[in-house]
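As agreed, record copied across for absentees:
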Amino acid sequence: MCKETKPLQLWASNRNKALDRQDALDFLASLGIENEKIYLIDLVPLIEMIWADGKIQPGELVILKIWIHKHAAQINQMAGYKIIRLSDAMEFAQRFLIRQPKPGLLKKIRHCIGPVRMHAKGGSYNHKLLKNILFGCLDIASSSVKEYPYEISGRFSQSEKNLFLDILATFREYAIETELFKEMRGRIDMDQT
């Protein structure tokens, strides 16, 4: 698809089938996310979690900044050279934090993470990346509450809980064979007995 195609039109043309790697790359390119910036789409689920309750809170931003530092360092270590500058990673995140993005945009970007970043289903890299993303989302969701006092089950807002389940569902096919999902499945099976 040509770059002149509007990003949401490009996505809509693929809504009835899973995105393949090239479709995902084309969609990201239509948003200006190309080359080394591709590694930064891993930040999107955390940014979604920040926006889940409709309000950015200082504690959430602290966790995101720490996560960005670690993520950039891991990417650079894997590459063997400085492919991601910390300032570029912060600028990427800031793009989605200045104002709340249009509904659905971050989710669409999140759906590109699997085909673009998780090449081998069930691979150990997938496990580590997915675990980092999920734990980052949990850290952000639990870091701040909108109001005090909150009920016993109110540490996470319902919108944060719903989003977390949606994020889990997004990565299911890429992580189903990982130890993380096997462990989760084992715990679920134990709870049902």
Observations:
- Residues 1-5, 7-16 have pLDDT under 50 and may be disordered.
